[in-house]
């Protein structure tokens, strides 16, 4: 089907132009052309783009909140109750829940997802294998990346480390990590780099997901990134502890991050829910200072859903515009410039992080998503829906 979008706003830019899909390829029509279109859509300035990217989620654990109840609402309880439950999850159960979330994400305009998948000696690589199947089955709708994630730690449990290597052999695209939860974070990072180098894969870690301003394993991650010549291949998720640090410390960390070309992924919904649990008054928000990071340091920063209705976070609907709105509240980002940055943080920035080009080019074969909004601020404030065509 040949479709013409007349007066479309490409991505969040306010430049209007005509965009067409001809025989499955992107085409920018010229006045002199005589192409027969099956549909002509009057976009009237609405955003037409390649779709949203949710670069940090957990499809294997999603939608279990009703079965695994977190009474305290803390990260510690979430990890401790999810541990034994994971081993009992059947492949069919994992598949059914993950596919439900993929469907939710698809309906909200998401076309690219990076999911962390738990790997340990109890569940082995079963979840990775299920997600690998879904990755193939959904390839024509959503591009899925799988991160092998050692939630239960590896330094003191060699069985978990062996399972992590098995996950890379089984087809995981990236290797994850969670150093701050180990007694020896530097060793955790060293062990992850050893596997990353061996299998030539990128690294995407859960970093400093706590309120302790002295928890700065990000500095060790930056140091080892340079030591291993891995600049540009490492992603740091969370960085919650930075939300409790003074400005000088944030500046010191950001310079190290920039030098190591580490890219940042903030998870505002889960952070607002889990962090600050020890505070009775002046409850901290527990989110990395993304406005400062974006505006003052120019470090690529994405935001993502993280957990969707599991013991870590009972909320979430697979809608990146909801993630952006939560970030807008949590990070005091309500200006037009802020909202544009947040829109990019759920679309163009994470796409680039996944090695994809978010800009439409003549001849591209790519998803085309149309939003019922003429600007980033309208999309986020109105929580605009996508328009089917
Ligand atoms: Zn996560």
Q: Can I get a quick summary?
A:
By secondary structure, the protein is of the alpha/beta class. The chain is built from 13 helices and 14 strands.
User: CATH top level of the largest domain?
Assistant: Alpha Beta
* CATH 2nd-level architecture of the largest domain: Alpha-Beta Barrel
Q: Roughly what is the average pLDDT, rounded to an integer?
A: 96
First-to-last CA distance: 11 Å
Determine the strand fraction and express it as a percent band.
15-25%
List unreliable stretches of 5+ residues: none
Oligomer: single chain
Count of separate DSSP helical elements: 13
**SSE-based structural type:** alpha/beta
CATH topology of the largest domain: TIM Barrel
Number of structural domains: 2
Characterize the structure shown.
The chain is an alpha/beta fold and 389 residues long. It folds into two domains: 3-49 and 360-382, Urease, subunit C, domain 1; 52-353, TIM Barrel (Alpha-Beta Barrel). The chain is built from 13 helices and 14 strands. The strands form three sheets. Strands 1, 2, 3, 4, 5 and 14 form a six-stranded mixed β-sheet that branches. Helix 2 packs across helix 3 (126-137). The longest helix is centred in the N-terminal third of the chain and has 17 residues, at 91-107. The N and C termini lie close together (11 Å). The mean pLDDT is 96. The structure holds zinc ion. Residues 56, 58, 116, 206, 237, 306 line the site of zinc ion.
